[in-house]
Every structure is written in structure tokens, then in C-alpha cells.
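Lab notebook, bench 4. Still working through the backlog of constructs that have no structural model yet. Next entry is a single chain of 100 residues. Request: give me the C-alpha cells for it.
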Amino acid sequence: MKKKLCLLVFSLIIIGITPLPSLAADLPNVVNINSIELQKQMDRLNEIKSIDTKTLSRHQRKELRHEIRSIQKAQSTGNGGIYLSVGAIIIIVLLLILIL
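Model written out:
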């Protein structure tokens, strides 16, 4: 039983380490779209930073702050994917082994 468990864990580690083929032909289009949007957002942030806020009314400054926050949130979310650390993956694998 112990040998089977060790063999199973070893095989899962090997499967996780081996590289998988990717669809590299589709990725540059997505990256270009994201980089264009990111560049527009960065240009807008630089434009807002160059504005003299002392000449603006209170309402306009508030709108600019909200716009800055929304741009920063959009940039921080990235692709919206789920990121798992190596430790989390190991814990999930161990839990699956214990359950099954």
C-alpha cells in the first residue's frame, strides 16, 4: 500500500512538472489587445496627474479620484484568472489522495 501511494505521488509530481504544448498562435492577439488598453489607461492616468487640481471644483476633483480608482482597479485585476500557488496545489493533491 505504501509503495502504491509513493508511486502515485511521484507520478502526479512528474505529470505536474512536464511541459504541455500551448497554443502560441492565439496569445499575441490577446496580449496586443490588453497592452493597447493598458497603454490607453496609463496615458489617461498621466493626463490626470498633469492636470492642476487647484483650478478644478470639488465635484470635478471627486470625479477624477473615482476615475483614478476605477482605472487602478481595472489594472490590478489583470486577466481575471485564478492563480494557485505551488503550496496550494500540493495541499489539494494531498487532500484528494486522502479522500480517495
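Notes after review: The CA atoms of residues 12 and 18 lie 10 Å apart. The chain has four helices and no strands. Flag for follow-up if needed.
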